[in-house]
Amino acid sequence: MKVQTGLDVLLGNTTLQNTFKGNVALLCHNASIDSTYTHAAIRFKHMFGDRFVKLFGPQHGFSTDVQDNMIETDHIIHPFFNIPVYSLYSETRIPTDKMLEGIDHLFVDLQDVGCRVYAYIYTLTYVLERCASKPIEVVVLDRPNPINGIDIEGNILDANYESFVGRHPIPFRHGLTIGEVALMHQKFWVKTKANLKVIKMLNWERSMFYEDTQLPWLLPSPNLARIESAYTFPATVLFEGTTLSEGRGTTQSLEVVGHPKIEPFSFCDSVLFKALKASKLQGVALRPITFLPTFQKQGGKVCGGIQIHVTDKSIYKPWRVGQLLMRELYHYLEDDFEWKAPPYEYNYHQKPIDIINGTDKLRHWIENNEALEALDALETLDSYNSLWNAIKIY
Predict the structure, then answer these.
(1) Which of 48, 112, 241, 378: CA 20 to 30 A from 201?
(2) pLDDT (0 to 100) of residue 67
(3) How would you label 332-362 residue by residue, b for 16+ Cβ within 10 Å and e otherwise?
(4) pTM for the complete prediction?
């Protein structure tokens, strides 16, 4: 059966709608649509009328049109809804007292991608922390984890590398819905609890990948236009910490990785295919390609590299594929490989690759050309699994 998101469940239940008596605000973005492709803000206007008083936008903006990290969005009065749109990626990433004035219920409807390095879950936890001391109910309209709610992968964040792309001790691929992130935050990571309600989905099962839901995919951020990009994201986002291109400025963003000094066929034939075979990683095919980014890193330069094709999602391990690629490219490019310099997501001191990885140990693993089996010692997930099992709602 087709999955109903939390938004769809709310729209189909007038009794539930009538429990929200006061003024209403909505934190949402481009992907906040119902099953008829109607935006949540339009539904809220019809549902709550003059009680719908404020909108909020996360990173990339309410309209999801701002391309890059550390490019902030302005606060505006929306020309159609005629209410304020407050940016939570502006001079602040935390809602202020003024922003929260006059709100009784703050709804959150954001599509996450199931990876620790994706800022929307941290916008949500900042909202929960700010509303904990106020008479505001935070209502999360749950949405699917597009890369399923079973598979967990990668190292747990080291608190020394906390950032806006890693606030909490979760693995790289966390296996949670955004509603479950909110529940885990409240149960384990804060002392002062918010007034939280999660409106669950119907018909979603933990084993589902996004296309199993029968829901339309709308880009949740500007460079994830295709669902294929969400599946490769936990591998390719690592390359934001380098000067290699991860395909931004192309039509295959976050599905490809490359650099002007790579001849893709010789790299794959002499290095990569052998390393992939030795790794025994399955469910993935790597293909030599040439691409031309029109902006961002290596903009205007022809890059040789690879495209990741997921052939079997059930056994594909994107985090390990990404680390394998990084190791092989680091040693193949030698002096032409560079770690990106700070700042990254407002951290001006630590290396971006360490912020993304949530540790410096993975960078050392790459630089020392260690075996893939050495990653097992970094991927200790027993403590996280106990938290995960305690809050699962599906």
Answers:
(1) 48
(2) 86
(3) bbeeebeebeeebbebeeebbbbbbbbbbbb
(4) 0.97
